[in-house]
Design a protein that fits this description.
The protein is mainly beta and 107 residues long. It contains no helices and 7 strands. The protein is globular.
Length: 107
């Protein structure tokens, strides 16, 4: 099976603020991986749908010995997939894969 990914995925847990274009508004969650082309994050409930456009803000914590500031990176993205991560637990969790519309930019 061939891997079609264009970018290396970094398995990293970062706070992610997701702004939705409809009445669901905004959610705060955590990434499971990030690449130059997109992000995967977890959420409870089917909050987002494939094809939906969202605005993302990834929060980068201070780096000991390098920076004492919290930094944010922002971009718009399109939801590619929403997949259930647990099939037998009481609280349904979903993995959401998004493709960045443009490169991440520092805020």
């Amino acid at each position: 099976m061939e891997d079609r990914r264009q970018h290396y995925r970094l398995p990293i847990s970062l706070p992610v603020e997701v702004s939705l274009s409809r009445e669901a508004g905004r959610l705060t969650t955590t990434s499971s991986n990030v690449s130059a082309g997109g992000v995967r994050f977890l959420c409870s409930g089917e909050t987002v749908r494939p094809g939906e456009r969202v605005s993302l803000r990834l929060i980068i914590p201070p780096a000991p010995g390098r920076s004492s500031r919290v930094t944010a990176m922002e971009t718009d993205a399109t939801v590619l997939r929403v997949e259930s991560t647990n099939h037998d637990g009481p609280a349904q969790r979903y993995a959401v894969a998004c493709r960045f519309s443009s490169p991440l930019r520092f805020n």
